[in-house]
Amino acid sequence: MAHKRTPREAWVRAALEALTEGGPEAVRIEVLAKRLGVTKGGFYGYFEGRDQLLAEALDVWEREAAQAVIDEVEQSQGNAQERLRSLLASVKAREDTVRTEFAIREWARRDPAVAARLRRVDYARLGYVRELHDELTGDAAEAAARAAVTIGLWLAGHYMRFDTEGFDHDAVLKLVFDRMTGKAQELR
Length: 188
Hints:
By secondary structure, the chain is an all-alpha fold. The chain has helices at 8-22, 29-36, 50-75, 80-93, 98-108, 112-137, 140-156, 169-180.
């Protein structure tokens, strides 16, 4: 009786899950095969080795972490303020991917090739957010500052709480993001 082959995508997703849980060292073929409930022989029908699997997992992450989000927001076709708010909602809906991002950021500290991929994602995100803020404010310096604050706050908000007297973490984030997505004249 012929066995149904485990899809390539399943191997890649399992690799991303293992990476999230334990870093690149946790991405081991035998462990992934066991997780998928298959033998490791099927792996070699798709991949030449572990390095190729890790590269494809990073390809998927890179596409989903940057371009897929940008494409989704651009489909909304609103003005800059509406697209910024759509972007924030889209990112919030993907909060389950933050652990993967942080595992990749940690890996990038030790691997220059991963660091290069991470820089591409960061540049794509910052560039897009800056374009939206530039469209909103018409001020390149203001747009650059707002983009840095927007992205930086999103990242920092996963490492620390912004609770302060009278405002919980989410309320503080909302206040900042409301200010970051407001028009320049509204803030004066």
